[in-house]
Amino acid sequence: MKLKQFSLLLAIAITINVSHAQLKKQKNTSFKVGQLWYDTEGNLINAHGGTILYFKHIYYWFGEKRGDHQSQGITVYTSKDLYNWQYKGVVFEQSKDATSPIAEGGIMERPKVIYNKKTKKFVLWFHLEIRGRGYNAAEVGVAESNHILGPYKYVRSFRPNGNMSRDMTIYKDDDGKAYEIYSSRDNYDMRIVQLTDDYLNVTKKDSLLFSKHREAPAIFKYNHQYYLITSACTGWAPNEAALCVANNLYGPWKMLGNPMKGEKSKTTFDGQPAFILPLPNKKNCFIYVGDKWNPKDLMDSRYQFLPIKITAGGVAIPWEENWSLNIFDK
Ligand code: GAL
What we know:
The chain has a single domain (about 35-330), classed as 5 Propeller (Tachylectin-2, Chain A), CATH 2.115.10.20. About 5% of the residues lie in helices and about 45% in strands. It has one helix and 24 strands. The protein has one helix at about 5-25, and strands spanning about 30, 50-55, 60-65, 70-80, 85-90, 105-115, 120-130, 140-145, 155-160, 170, 180-185, 190-195, 200-210, 215-220, 225-230, 240-245, 255, 260, 270-280, 285-290, 300-305, 310, 315-320, 320-325. It has a four-stranded antiparallel beta sheet with strand order 2-3-4-5, with no helix packed on it. Strands 6-7-8-9 form a four-stranded antiparallel beta sheet, with no helix packed on it. It starts with a helix and ends in a 7-residue tail after the last strand. It binds beta-D-galactopyranose.
């Protein structure tokens, strides 16, 4: 290759690289659902199966840090607008001690963080699987911190009242009482258990909600009613979601069918529920967040932020490819 040709190619390569880097660092002004999503440093956001906590005017997005498959602890990102996220690091690490319940090689999934007003502590709950045991430990783990950004310290892990606990979520009600909603008995049962007042353990108020072989619970409260979305149990492969409603967290829960609308609604747009975010400054506005898993490279699993549509006809989650928060003003 002549020097002139080489210089030209080099210039093109540099331009492509620079524009790619610029693209990664571009400010987001909308949710591009299921697309690559970079943090403010230009790295892919790695926070799966997580939750968003709004605290003192800042959003904190906690999630599973994944390698191509392995668990790598719990990460957190912060944002003021929900579109642009700054990476703040791993807030809960796995242990180098192979005998620890949170040893590297184990699995941490579906992290949920809640704030305890009385103890002034942030409490992290997550699905824990112990190194070398696949998904057979079926425990829930608890960690705590004085600071929202951690580091979080391991408190305990266990099966709530002896029941298996795999996919789970934590719900803090308006009265400050908190609950774990969890898939149990090899995912055949969905159960609920109230947490102790310090949120560091479970009480005996533990009850079966329904036995429909469901997982990936995500919950919100609207107009004095609780809405729970779950998936069927097909591992990383997507399936049809279902919505149910109740006046009381302990039931009875009424099944309402699939809330997803649009093409691919039968497979939850190829995703699975992670959590639901009530918008702090907009009454009765909720964002559904799902994970579009990539089992070949879990780190590259994508996020599905979608607006929940509440009308006289009920609660629905229509597909949107690219949307912004002003959709709630329409
Ligand atoms: C899914 C579950 C995920 C993960 C996965 C492992 O059913 O919702 O959180 O546990 O199985 O196969």
